[in-house]
Amino acid sequence: MTRVKANMLMTLAALIWGTTFVVQRTSMEAMGPFTFTGIRFLLGGLLLLPLAWPQRHRLVAADRGKDLPLLLLVGLALFAGSALQQIGLIYTTASNAGFLTILYVPLVPVLGFLAFRSLPHPLIWPAGLGSVIGAWLLSGAGAVEVNPGDFWVLGSSFFWAIHVLSIGIAASRINAPLLIACIQFMITGTLSLVVALLIEEPDLTAIANAWFEIFYAGALSVAVAFTLQVVAQKYTMAADAAIILSTETLFAAIAGAIFLGERLTPVQLAGCALIFAGILAIQLLPLFTLKRRRKAL
Questions:
Q1: Rounded to an integer, what distance in angstroms lies between the CA atom of residue 50 and that of residue 182?
Q2: Rounded to the nearest 5°, which phi and psi values hold at 206?
Q3: In contact, 55 and 179? CB cutoff 8 Å
Q4: CA–CA distance from 156 to each of 46, 58, 168 (Å)?
Q5: What is the pLDDT of residues 95-140, one digit of tens each?
Q6: At how many degrees (to 10) do helices 64-91 and 94-101 cross?
Q7: What φ, ψ does residue 264 adopt, rounded to 5°?
Q8: Is-contact 135 104, C-beta < 8 A?
Q9: Contacts of 134 (CB under 8 A, 6+ apart)
């Protein structure tokens, strides 16, 4: 798979996640955050299981001592990021949540440098900053009013950054993208349901009434979008992936305008343009650089 195709797959994943913000908010009217997170990830894992099962033999016995802890880290990061974000959505606004979540974009190259001493392409820093500013403009470009849920969402951005980094490593080491995706879904879903049974009171009637939200979030957001991320990150850098996936905020704003009748102001449109410019920069500049090298040869 080419880098361009991989980036297109991640853009599609971000599109799905952006539209999922609506059902994430509405689902909280019927059930607790851990109940919703647990059910949707187990549903996604079960839907993917028939395709992932044949890849189980690709976990070579000699490497399992390294690969299994890595897969556990991927699952734990996904669990923490999803759970903290879902809790935060109860106590903060959608605009605040969208902006604070995007802070994982600059965190990815920073954590990558601290952990592996790997420096990304210099273009990543202005593109990442542009994505963050664009997300702020999309949130209304006003002073961010601090809500209790903001700290939960801010914490989730740290774990989203770890998830992007660990997915990139796992996808490069283990040639079993569907298996990686399925394992992380099962870990996240199981842990979420355990917490739900301890601190929440899952109601079967409420769960049944929210079947559409659960199915949409489980089948599309989990089984499809997160799997696309795993497949695509084998062929692109983690820092590039973070910027591309940040278009989730852009697509969430567009979905709100289409399905909820929310009008985008000129300031918000400027935020959309900034995020889009960052995507074009990391997508097109390396192609121009490659052409120049070929001409030099």
A1: 10
A2: -65, -40
A3: yes
A4: 25, 31, 18
A5: 666 667 777 777 787 788 777 777 666 767 777 777 777 767 766 6
A6: 150
A7: -90, 125
A8: no
A9: 249, 250, 270, 271, 272, 273, 274, 275, 278
Amino acid residing at 60: V
Dihedral (Cα; 229, 234, 236, 237), 10-degree rounding? 90
Phi first, then psi, for residue 119 (nearest 5°) are: -95, 130
297 three-state secondary structure:
coil
**Mean pLDDT taken over the chain:** 79
Q: Which of 236, 254, 257 is nearest to 245 (CA)?
A: 236
DSSP state of 233: G
Cβ atoms of residues 89 and 23 within 8 Å: no
Convert 94-116 to b/e letters by CB count within 10 Å (16 or more is b): bbbbbbbbbbbbbbbbebbeeee
Q: How many angstroms separate the CA atoms of 120 and 37, rounded?
A: 33
Domain interval for residue 63? 3-296
The total number of structural domains in the chain stands at 1
CA atoms within 13 A on the CB side of 268: 18
The Cα 248–Cα 43 span in angstroms is: 22
- CB neighbours of residue 80 within 10 Å: 19
Spacing of C-alpha 188 from chain mean position: 14
**C-beta of residue 89 within 8 angstroms of C-beta of residue 97:** yes
Q: What is the pLDDT of residues 238-281, one digit of tens each?
A: 777 877 887 777 777 777 677 666 666 777 777 777 777 776 66
pLDDT above 80: residue 219: yes
The tokens describing 134, both together, are: 């664009």
